Amino acid sequence: MRKRAFPLPWAAGYGLARTLLALGTLGTLAFSDAATLFREVATVGRYPLCQGVNSGGAFCLVSSQHYDTMRWICCLVLVVAASGWRPRLTAVPHAYVAFSVFTGISISDGGDQITWILTLLIAMVAIGDKRRWHWQPSQPLEEPASRQRNLSALLGTSAIIMARVQMALLYFQSCVAKLPHAEWADGTALYYWINNYAFGAPYWLRPALDIIVDSPVGVAVITWGPLVLEIALAAALLMPQRVRWMLLPAGILFHLSIAVVMGLWSFAIAMWAGLLLLLSPLGHDPDFKALLRRTRRHSVAEQPEVNAQSKERVPA
After folding, report:
1. pLDDT in tens, 209-263
2. Both ends of the chain: CA-CA distance in Å?
3. Rounded distance between C-alpha atoms, residue 207 and residue 186, angstroms
4. CA–CA dist 267, 15 (Å, integer)
5. Which residues lie closer than 8 Å to 214 by C-beta, 6 or more apart?
6. Tens digits of per-residue pLDDT, 142-183?
7. C-alpha–C-alpha distance, residues 89 and 23, integer Å
């Protein structure tokens, strides 16, 4: 009987996504104090609400006087998870912290929700990951592999596929939900977003962006461009891998621009992690050592040129 093989999920590519998700949540907790994260919301109540499933969150386990202590404990968990050490041991605590932040803080946004969902799916991958560091390249299954090991590999691969489907649906919904609104249809939506007092561009960036949004062609391009990119990302799973690699830098720049203009950095980092899962092949192992070697060679190659220019400027 013919056996079908599939790539193992325990590779450095999914590890990079884990690190990004941990860093995004870490930024939220490390740079916001308890008074900012936990406050009363009109018609809802004071956060954390600690009702139903949400009562299992980390911040519901302590009194309000110890929110900052719990916040720093969560930061420590996220630092260890981001480092890549022992993914099978840190995956569940990482997912628990992501859940606690999404359900506990009063200022949660879409990035926190995406982080919680992706972290939960990635935990299903990591619990079968026996590597010391998630940066290490994947190792082939032992022959013959145990039934438990085969099931762990199948569970991990299925979880990554589910994460990819989740990201594709997210981009599809994001694009389609904008289409019924007249401002997106006529290409003027970004004019209003950029000039919005709550989520608009910072004042130092307004002069440059005003040149674009005050032009009919410019505002139409930056309004319809994201729609085209989002529907392309939604269809990415149907595209060849070479096209997906081309979409990756476009998606990264897209969310970077949102972070710079609107200040949604944790959202951007979560979406970068999702893009890696969506657009990288299953079992992808980026060669970080080769990248570092190329960077060093480039730096060494430039050094003689810099020294030569410095010598030319020295007076005789």
Report:
1. 999 999 999 999 999 999 999 999 999 999 999 999 999 999 999 999 999 998 8
2. 81
3. 23
4. 19
5. none
6. 666 678 888 898 999 999 999 999 999 999 999 999 999 999
7. 18
> CA 75, CA 28: separation in Å to the nearest integer?
9
The structure tokens listed for 36 are 């900012």
- Write down the mean pLDDT value for the chain: 88
- Among positive and negative, which fits the CA dihedral 137, 143, 149, 151? positive
Give the span between the Cα atoms of 212 and 233, in whole angstroms. Answer: 25
Rounded-to-integer distance, Cα 123 and Cα 77, Å: 14
Structure tokens at 137: 């390249």
Q: Dihedral, CA atoms, 67, 72, 78, 81, nearest 10 degrees?
A: -130
Share above pLDDT 90 across residues of the chain, in percent, rounded to a whole number: 69
Q: How far apart are CA 260 and CA 264, in angstroms?
A: 8
Phi first, then psi: give them for residue 84, nearest 5 degrees: 95, 5
Amino acid found at 231: I
SS3 138: coil
Compute the distance between CA of residue 212 and CA of residue 71 in angstroms, rounded to an integer: 41
Please report, as a single letter, which amino acid is at residue 161: I
Partner residues linked to 6 by β-bridges: none
